[in-house]
Amino acid sequence: MAKGLTEKVREFIERHELCRLATVSKDGSPHVVPVNYLLHGEFIYIFTDYGTKKLSNIRRDPRVAVLIDEYRPNKAVLALGRAEVLHAGEEYREVYEKFYRKFSWVRASPWREGEAPLLKVRINRVISWGLPER
Is the pTM of this model over 0.85? Predict the structure, then answer.
C-alpha cells in the first residue's frame, strides 16, 4: 500500500469525484487541470482525450500529482505518483464500467476501447491535512 493511504484517506478520496491533476510540461513547468477520477484498488484512474497536453506530458514524464480538496473546513489529500497510459484490455473495460455507472457525462457520450486513453496513477506517497490520522 502507498505510504499515507490510510482508511480515512481512502474514504475522503472516494467521497469526491473532481481532482486537480498536475503533470510536468516539456519546459519543466507544472500543468494543472481539473478532471474526474476514480480510486480503484491502489490506483487513481482518469480518462482523457488523445491530443491533450496532460497526455503528452505523461508520455514524456510520468510523474504526476493529484490533489483532492474541500473548503470549509479545509481538508485535502495530495497523492504523488507515476502515471501509465492504458488504451484497451480487461482493466480498461473494468474501470470504464465504473466510470459509466458513476458519471452522467460518460453515459451521455459513451466510447469504446481505443477511443480515449485511461491514465492509471500508481500512488507512491500521500500527504493529507485536516483528516483524522487513522
Answer: yes
**Residue 96 · residue 112 · CB < 8 Å:** no
Residue 114 grid coordinates: 481505443
The angle subtended at Cα 106 by Cα 104 and Cα 109, nearest 5°, is 110
Residue 1 counted as domain residue:
no
User: Number of structural domains, the chain?
Assistant: 1
Average pLDDT over residues 14-29: 96
Q: Go through the chain and tell me how many residues it has.
A: 134
Q: Is residue 43 part of a domain?
A: yes
* pLDDT number for residue 133: 63
State residue 44's pLDDT score: 97
Q: Say if 52 falls within a structural domain.
A: yes
Q: Is the pLDDT of residue 1 over 60?
A: no
Show the domain range for 83: 7-129
